[in-house]
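>> Question from a student workshop board

For tomorrow's exercise we were told to take the sequence and the ligand below, predict the bound structure, and bring the output to class. My setup keeps failing. Could a helper post the expected result so I can at least see what it should look like? The ligand is adenosine monophosphate.
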Amino acid sequence: MASFIVLLGPPGVGKGTQATIIAKKMGLPHISSGDLFRENMKNQTDLGKQVQAFMDRGELVPDDLTIAMVRERLSRPDCAKGAILDGFPRTPEQARALSGILGTRSADVGLVPFLNADPDVLVERLSGRLTCRAGGHVYHRKFNPPAVNGKCDVDGSDLMQREDDKAETVSRRLRVYMEQTSPLINHYKAEGKLVEINGELPVEQVTAALERAIGIR
Ligand code: ADP
Ligand code: AMP
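>> Workshop helper replied:
Here is what the output should look like for this input. Compare the format with yours to find the bug.
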């Protein structure tokens, strides 16, 4: 049975950090819509050019573009056994599309761990986040610093602050989350799939809670 897990939660709560760990443990692909968009921007694809302004402003990319991109990604063979989805769906329309895409292959979203944290914690995490230019590996100035200042531990490339992690954009992203994405909490609760997890704990403790929820611990 395929295992599609949706990590839900506000920007900065640790979805990408946890998805990387859990995907590796479960041998499933980690699909981050934000990473896919950033890859397209880096490569200056047509899609990348279309989404850049939305992303830099901290707004959501329109549903049609987002859904088409994720649909294509999910159609690849490595997703046959499932995937860890991080940052998608982000609107009710995207959630319906995801059910439709998985339904065509007799699969569905299994579990929706909802990571949550106070806005103050989110702002501190986003404003201290460092991302590597080459592979998108993620660090934090205070909570998870790289071994060598300014360099990625994994590939040695330069670390930078994401454009949308600058203070003025962070507040807009948190607002966009509240308005457009938080309705998914009730959507998945009603389907009996939501499991709430305290995202304020240290990384290892969040991982442990997630593993218990998924049933791999
Ligand atoms: P998201 O994908 O939800 O936006 P990230 O996984 O990129 O969030 O994490 C945001 C920032 O917070 C990163 O700098 C990351 O290193 C840091 N971080 C993630 N989880 C924790 C945690 N449990 N405790 C402290 N810092 C964390
Ligand atoms: P993230 O890496 O998840 O923080 O996403 C960064 C940015 O990418 C968001 O602020 C949006 O502009 C865009 N994005 C990522 N995922 C989605 C999505 N599912 N729907 C719309 N926009 C998205």
